[in-house]
Amino acid sequence: MKKVLFALLGILLSVGTAQAQDDGAKLAKSAGKALAAYNQDPAGNSSKIAEAKTKIDQAMQTPEAQALASAWIIKGDVYSTRIQNELAMQTVNPNAKLTGDNDALESFNAYKMALEKPEIKKYEKEQAIDGIVLVQPWMINIGVSKYNTKEYEKAFLAFKGSLEAHEVLNTNKKKSVLDDPKEYRDQIFFTGFLASLAKRCNDAVPYYEILYKQGTDSLAVYEGLFNCKTELKDEAGALKILQEGRKKFPEESSLLFAEINYYISKGRLSELTGSLEQAIRKEPNNASLYRALGDVYNNLFTVLLEDTIQTREQKASKIKEYADGAKKNFLIAVEKEPNNMDFNYSLGALLYNETNLIAQEMNETSFSTNAGQKRYKELKEKMLVDVDQALKYFQKAESLEPNDVNVLAALVQAYGRKEDDTLYMEFKKRLDVVKKGGTNAGSYFKN
């Protein structure tokens, strides 16, 4: 009796498996028929596209449908049709929302799966490739949309798909929207950049390295590679990129500050100041080198200023050393290029930050004694004199660039510290104009 039951169970299992196989293939075909009906009469058969999606999604859950190139092509066609219709709707109503998260990417991945099937027929291969031609630009558009909403990982996957589509189309001698070499390089960069934003540096590095190995002149590629290699704890690789980048872009501040921070973290300040001083000896009239050396000292000054572990007395000698070094080099830079807005702002910012030390001591001074009150008055007088020194350079910077946010913000702070309500409100108003996307007609101070 048991043998009979086992035999019967085996028959039932076989029938069930055969039924599942049949259902997967049939569902895919049924989805294809629903899509065909929709395409014949979109208005009259509007519900058929949803039916096609439901059926193909169910079908692709089965191993039987997954093994069929035809089923993957149907899925690609269904998702392609959906996104095509919805993008068309957005041209009429820009506020219309897409039903799917990224139907273009879903469609591309389906076509790609079809092409990977060894038994794919010639006409099926042509269908899949034609489908990829159609969805490639949509992937890029949706990727841009995801970037704008700060969905960086989804944006990265969309851009990654567009590059994969380009390779497929290129291999099959079909036109790609990325055929232009510059657009292709830009897409590679932005794909790496989006991977970086998505905290996927392992994915970002290969894209950056494609451009790096081509000898790119893009500073952003070096920045991206350095940041990602640092994130991935590849210290040797990060340092190599940093050194090459500094040599290639000697006047770019972003890599300079990256180098500064690297040497600071390693306690190797002498190497950095030494290399800059050597460069100055070779090019004594290069104002940018003095500014760079000033930036090194200014960075050290700022870090120490914000250090809450050491007391003011413990930090005093080093703070003076760094501030003096920054001031000396910024002054030389300004003397060589008096109409350089950045140089004037940097010197003004340093002088203003020095007044923070005086303000800190003022806050710690007691009013309970005559001596304390006297000391407070002396400190305030000195602080206001120093604020005026900083203002001289902020005013010059504003006369050169009346719409620079940093300069305007510095003027607001400085006049606030001077308790000059009139000029405080004047520059607050000007700063608000710029922050709201406007521009000031002219400078307040004259060059």
Question: Can you describe what's shown?
Answer:
With 447 residues, the protein is mostly helical. Among the domains are: 23-176; 180-246, Serine Threonine Protein Phosphatase 5, Tetratricopeptide repeat. Helices cover 79% and strands 0% of the residues. It has 19 helices and no strands. It has helices at residues 2-40, 48-59, 63-66, 69-92, 103-115, 122-148, 152-171, 181-197, 201-213, 219-231, 235-248, 253-266, 269-282, 287-305, 312-336, 341-364, 370-400, 405-417, 421-435. The chain is elongated and about 95 Å long. The N and C termini lie far apart (107 Å). The model is unreliable at 1-21 (pLDDT under 50).
Order of helices and strands: HHHHHHHHHHHHHHHHHHH
> Sheet with the most strands?
none
Measured between the Cα atoms of the first and last residue, the distance is 107 Å
Please work out how many helical segments DSSP would assign: 19
Task: State mean pLDDT (0 to 100 scale).
Answer: 89
What brief labels describe this structure?
mainly alpha; 19 helices; Serine Threonine Protein Phosphatase 5, Tetratricopeptide repeat; elongated; 447 residues
What's the topology here?
Layout: H1 2-40, H2 48-59, H3 63-66, H4 69-92, H5 103-115, H6 122-148, H7 152-171, H8 181-197, H9 201-213, H10 219-231, H11 235-248, H12 253-266, H13 269-282, H14 287-305, H15 312-336, H16 341-364, H17 370-400, H18 405-417, H19 421-435
Helix pairs in contact: 1-2, 1-4, 2-4, 4-5, 4-6, 5-6, 5-7, 6-7, 7-8, 8-9, 9-10, 10-11, 11-12, 12-14, 13-14, 14-15, 14-16, 15-16, 16-17, 17-18, 18-19
